[in-house]
Design goal:
By secondary structure, this protein is of the alpha+beta class. It is built from 20 helices and seven strands. The radius of gyration is 24 Å and the shape is globular.
């Protein structure tokens, strides 16, 4: 059966919710799980097998995928601490080889478990080329990436090819095993591999998982906070206030991989200048494209706002060329990275798909980063390499203080039906930008000795950033 993307919805539910609708959905998910797994265990173990509810009830959350009103698949999520004897004695681990359990205890602190993957038999194959299992596993990986856990673990059923789907999202095999006479893999995904995997997906699958995940977050926020707001504010105002809070969260996401970069190494700063140049060189064209996409009558104010922003951004790429010249580097020695190309090419896609308001969200993490996180970096780099080699960074640490505040204020005037576009752009930008920083840190690792990399205990950026607050 072909997957109709227009009909797909995704909800995450948990036991004993105060929401009657969510409680009903939880019961429906349990009935779906019981039907699928009872048939499975009777097939692979015994026709007299009795399935108990404990395995379902012990899960922290259940992800439910719908096609229209019909449940087509579920997946469960749990978080455990490997230092907890109670957590590690869970029945979930009864099918794990001892060496895998010991490896998990030694190498990870908090683990995100996905399990109980179930898809209705009539929906297990898709002539569209992507299975519901892949969507569910991808959504599980997104949930993991937004958690505090340091790794995801799961055990796959290889006759259903789930090990291939987990591999698509960065999964690595820890061990091979046989569960109920079925070949299985114990697999793990770390956050870096999980994030990188989304850039390699087909665009349709990547965008679909992102949209399903974000829509669930929006619905959960509205349900949990409706009673906290005056009804006079309405749903749009609630979403605006949430986006304003999440703007700071996306700044943290964009900043997270800076902490793994040692800017005291001149090659690192050179790579940062080069990759920044490659996407800044496109900014005025992106702004022009978004301005041209504004509706002639309903988005005129946004149209002129984007044009004003375009004029402010003129010649910023020349600042970077000047900084590169003053530090004594040649741009030709630093080719454009795939992660950088993904960052600005996604902008054109989002403007075309979600409209020009998505650009407001896309720029917000970088503007917040410049005014909230990077002044400490500018202070250190200008001492080390000279102010004449840091003009771009100085300009944006000063200019974007105003831009970030203006963007948060302008958010109050964005039409309600455009808020989701702003929010989608904001999170997409933060994650893609973080990947550029990750790629830069890898570049230094590849070009320097292992000994040098292992000596980096606490990059000075982390210390200076703390001092700036």
């Amino acid at each position: 059966m072909a997957i109709s993307l227009e009909n797909l919805t995704y909800r995450v539910v948990s036991r004993n919710s105060a929401n009657d609708f969510e409680n009903n959905l939880y019961k429906r998910a349990y009935q779906f799980w019981k039907k699928i797994f009872t048939a499975t265990f009777k097939e692979v173990i015994s026709s007299n097998y009795v399935l108990y509810s404990d395995e379902f009830l012990l899960q922290d959350q259940i992800g439910v995928l719908f096609s229209g009103k019909e449940i087509v698949g579920i997946i469960s999520y749990s978080k455990i601490k490997t230092s907890s004897l109670v957590d590690m004695d869970r029945s979930y681990f009864k099918n794990y080889p001892n060496e895998s359990i010991e490896y998990i205890k030694r190498n990870f602190n908090e683990v995100f478990i996905i399990s109980n993957l179930a898809v209705s038999p009539k929906n297990r194959k898709s002539i569209s080329g992507t299975s519901y299992s892949s969507y569910l596993i991808g959504l599980g990986v997104k949930e993991f990436l937004h958690s505090d856990c340091d790794t995801l673990i799961t055990i796959t059923r290889n006759d259903r090819k789930t090990h291939n789907s987990v591999g698509i999202f960065g999964g690595k095999t820890l061990s091979f095993h046989n569960v109920h006479n079925i070949n299985s893999n114990v697999m793990s995904i770390n956050k870096e591999d999980g994030r990188n995997s989304f850039f390699k997906l087909e665009l349709e699958l990547q965008e679909s998982i992102f949209e399903l995940f974000e829509n669930n977050r929006k619905i959960n926020f509205l349900e949990k906070n409706l009673s906290k707001f005056s009804l006079l504010k309405g749903e749009d105002q609630m979403i605006r206030e949430q986006i304003a809070k999440e703007a700071h969260e996306t700044v943290d996401i964009a900043f997270q991989n800076y902490k793994h970069i040692n800017f005291e190494n001149k090659k690192t700063y050179e790579e940062w200048l080069a990759q920044t140049y490659y996407y800044v060189h496109h900014v005025t064209r992106i702004l022009a494209f978004a301005a041209a996409k504004c509706d002639l009558y309903q988005e005129e104010e946004l149209h002129f706002r984007l044009i004003d922003h375009l004029n402010e951004e003129k010649d910023h790429d020349k600042m970077l060329l000047s900084d590169m010249n003053n530090i004594g580097m040649d741009l030709k020695d630093h080719p454009e990275k795939l992660e950088t190309r993904n960052f600005y090419q996604s902008l054109f896609y989002m403007i075309e798909t979600y409209g020009p308001y998505s650009l407001l969200g896309y720029f917000m993490p970088q503007e917040g980063l410049a005014c909230l996180k990077l002044p400490a970096l500018y202070k250190e780099l200008s001492k080390q390499y000279g102010e004449e080699s840091c003009t771009f960074l100085k300009e944006h640490c000063e200019l974007d203080v105003e831009h970030f505040g203006d963007a948060l204020e302008y958010l109050k005037t964005v039409p309600g039906n455009k808020l989701n576009a702003v929010r989608a752009g904001m999170f997409r930008s933060a994650e893609l930008y973080s990947e550029i920083m990750s790629a830069i840190s890898k570049e230094v690792y590849i070009n320097e000795s292992d000994k040098y990399w292992n000596q980096i205990k606490t990059p000075f950026l982390e210390k200076s950033a703390i001092q700036s607050h």
